Amino acid sequence: MIEHTLPEGSQWQGRRTTGGIYLLPDRARLFDTTLRDGAQTEGVCFSNEDKLEILERLDAFGIDFIEGGYPASNPKDRAFFQAARRVELRNSKLVAFGATHRSGVRPEEDKGMDALLEAGTEWVCVFGKAWDLHVEKALQVPLEENLRIVRDTVAYLKGKGRSVIFDAEHFFDGYQHNAEYAMGVLHEAEDAGADWLCLCDTNGGAFPSLVGKVVSRVREEMRAPLGIHAHNDGELAVGNSLAAVEAGAAMVQGTVNGLGERCGNANLCSIIPNLMLKMGVRTGISDLSQLTKLSHFVAEMANVAPDPRAPFVGKSAFAHKGGIHVSAVLKDPRTYEHVDPALVGNQRRVLVSELSGVSNIIAKAEELGIGTERDVGRLVLERMKELEAEGFQYEAAEASLELLIRKLKGQSTSPFKLEGFRTFMDVTGDVMTSEASVRVVDSDGTLEHTAADGNGPVNALDRALRKALERFYPVLKEVRLIDYKVRVIDGKEGTAAKVRVLITSTDGKQSWTTIGVSGNIIEASLMALIDSIEYKLMRAGVNGTGGSLNCQ
């Protein structure tokens, strides 16, 4: 193996194996391509305003390089780079992306090169073919011609004062098929002055064992620092990226939440905490606890629901359901948590279900701010298991769970009583209308009987109930329904099956979810609606001695 002298200013540790391979960078460079590769996700379309906001958030988080787009491919990306000039970046370098120049055209005559330069960024990233199959089948040029294109492209951009990251596209496939040629592509880019050589698993089919072996070999032979760009088609992009770092790569390219074409890119939300917390590698991130917020922000901008099961940042990443697990975690979190959730800005959650133990109930009650003795915890657990056997499910309906616990503790949560209701449906021509009437009694015994129309029976009931109760409790005017879900519990029963209704409500300050279950969708909906109203009144400090329809 060849010993190399480290270049001046290198970020590599002095550690090396007896064979001379440099290991684990002391400071890994993070390269985010959410705005370019991530924008290729099916169903995602960032506006330039979105991209500017994400750019500023990534910069504030401490990402080293942010790839803004492909200016040669479309006018929107060109406009983005123009607009980005007004953004003062504190931590990041904005990068323009492009391809090597076209065959038969000199670099200075290539419009793609012009677009890269016009983007006005100090750093550019260009990709070139490293798999001879692609050179012959996709580019349809001789192998030697591709080598010249790579060399001339990098040399031209360096001559224009740009710092160059060379992405060796399909490198791992190319290395397996023709290692000598793939390495030759890297040598051409390095000899032309490339500042970084990034090895790409473009098809996402490599294994960590292969990536580690190949990066080690490349590290021996090349002087320029190495990067890794992995795709997730084999669900191995994060593993491949970490294996590359272990073998000597000092730059990791990826996207927030693993956005990207097909199955996505390597997920920086998993890579960054693994690098920092597990491998002891420094990055430019000064406050890792902002990671979960960043993940949710980008998901919101992409109009993609956050994955609850995403490692580190997902809502379920530190959620514990099994009774044995919860009991152990309460004694020592290390028993079932591989890192402290607070380090990545997440939090522990205790779930309750038929799989729960008393520890779950007590921990959940404490989380909800309700002190609960062990005897009460057992009572709650038994009642909850009975209700879950009927179809209730409290994991996603914590407001109903809190009401249940308080009722079994002997606390009154309902200052009103529903004495009866009716719903009517009428069809006139092609128009169907719904009407509901309700009778409610407040804690002083005052009766209110009122009716309301709606675009369906549930909507009519909701409006009638609120109309009646707002007379007694004006605070309910703040409440509105923001989500309504219906799930058939046992489809084999056909139209006689029970349904589970989940309703999410908000008062503009907080939101809460309640549940109802019945063989009648109207009754199930009304259960959830009444729980929602009870929860709001309880939080507002309104107490009484009524009772809800939900016989919990």
Please tell me about this protein's structure.
This protein has 552 residues and is an alpha/beta fold. It has three domains: 29-302, Aldolase class I (TIM Barrel); 319-390, no CATH class; 416-539, 2-Layer Sandwich (Double Stranded RNA Binding Domain). The protein is 37% helix and 19% strand. It has an eight-stranded parallel beta barrel with strand order 1-2-3-4-5-6-7-8, surrounded by ten helices. A three-stranded antiparallel sheet has the order 11-12-13, with helices on one face. A three-stranded antiparallel sheet has the order 14-15-16. Helix 1 (48-61) links the parallel strand 1 and strand 2 (65-69). Helix 5 (143-159) packs parallel to helix 7. The longest helix is centred in the C-terminal third of the chain and has 19 residues, at 521-539.
Brief description of this entry?
The chain contains 17 helices and 16 strands.
CATH class category of the largest domain: Alpha Beta
Query: Helix content range of the residues, please?
Result: 25-40%
Arithmetic mean of pLDDT = 88
The number of E-state strands comes to 16
Q: How is the biggest beta sheet arranged?
A: 8 strands, parallel, barrel
Distance between the termini: 72 Å
- Strand proportion, as a percent range, falls in 15-25%
